[in-house]
Amino acid sequence: MKKLITYLSIIVLIFSVSSCKQEFLETTPSETVATPLAQYKLNGLYLMMVNAGTGGTTGHDDFGQKGYDIFSDMLSSDMVLAAVGYNWYASLANLSATTDYTNNTNYTPWRYYYRLINGANDVIDGLGGNDASPTGDSAYGMGQAKTLRAYAYYYLLQLYTNKYDPGADVLPLYLKSGSPAAGKSKQSEIYAQIIKDLTDAVSLLSGYARPNKGVINKYVAEGYLAYVYAAIGDNINAAKYSKDIIDNGGFPVTTKAQATGGFNSLATPSWMWGFDITLDNNLNLASWWGQVDLYTYSYAWAGDPKVMDKGLYDAIRNDDVRRTQFTGVYQGKSLLPTNKFYDSKKIIGGQRVIEMDYVYMRVDEFHLLYAEALAKQGSKDSEARLVLKNYLTNRMNSTSYIDALSGQALLDEIYLQTRIEFWGEGKSYLAMKRNKANVKRGSNHLFFAGQLFSYDDDRLFLKIPQSEINNNPLLK
Fold first, then answer.
1. Which of 145, 362, 385, 438 is least surrounded by CB atoms within 10 angstroms?
2. Alpha-carbon distances of 118 from 9, 231, 244, 397, 429, rounded to whole Å
3. Alpha carbons 316 and 321: distance in angstroms, whole number
4. Residue 318's CB: how many other CB atoms inside 10 A?
5. What pTM did the predictor assign?
């Protein structure tokens, strides 16, 4: 059941890290309950993850994490911008934005993630600082804040670097709120801090009974630990944390029926973390649903559909239920995700103010990541095959073809299944990076159709924005 939002007050969060000014943020989102100051500030950060304009613009592509999920899905080429009537994402799809640091595509995620970092730092500072050992509710607040900080740095590293290179100087690392502008830290330093934050968070959140799935718990922190270890090639730890989530998290996999059930409810048992959107959030066109869903008053409905890459669709087996997710045809465009994501009323152009929820993380991710991490260890192909087959029994009628796969062929299949399973959820780009995959654009792309791109192509990652360089001389 949807919960009403009660706006208890406005708190000051100093979100800027160099050029941004102090800003105010309303609380509380429906994910939270009235609690002491640390949780009260965290409520504002959870809300910031879904609000429009949190990247500092009025653009209808500026709406928090799910907006940048679209960015990354397009950079992976798995999501196709099938028309450009309204021009949102056109410069991303044609890869001109990623070679022009003045383009807002580079600015909005940078501002959003560093605002989250500064807000998380504010919570951490208020609870005693980075080295404090709080207990009780303060420990739970610290665990959430450290997870949010780690999550933000993880995404910055994925989006603003071309590949994992521990010695490369890449981004500023801020660990206190209101810190003065800093120069670039090495990837190794930032990853080490992310791992420390998440390891701390797992301990701090142990035993925490969160009020609902909009709030971070231990297993969400473990999920990001698994992703981070996978990104740096530590497949033993990636497998370890993935398996713990599977074995002990209490989340069943998304069923075959749920795979075509709309992906619109935080109550879905497989969802580990998301956002329970209500009318009070007042989301509309500037939202994920407002960009992708045909059954919403959306850009997809008005003429700018986002569809599956034709090559990826053709790779889905005929007996796979996910093939039916992308059967939508509208205004001459095909492969719309009309049977995966949809407003529950299923009226074309119908949902005006968004009530359908957001998914950030679901347990299915860690079944496939576990298989991937096992396969990358060289000696565990048989275990990886079993994990993959067990998962895919929920998607297709026969998995016997997997028995013949080993080595790179097995890894390629796991990567393919990851792309298919998480289309539209912002996971394909992360998988492309950690698997060092080449990407060939399908025939239905408006730009570069049929062209092959390496995962580390200069056009496939964002650049530090002009405004940041102008305001932070240490980056020049």
1. 438
2. 20, 24, 30, 48, 25
3. 9
4. 7
5. 0.93
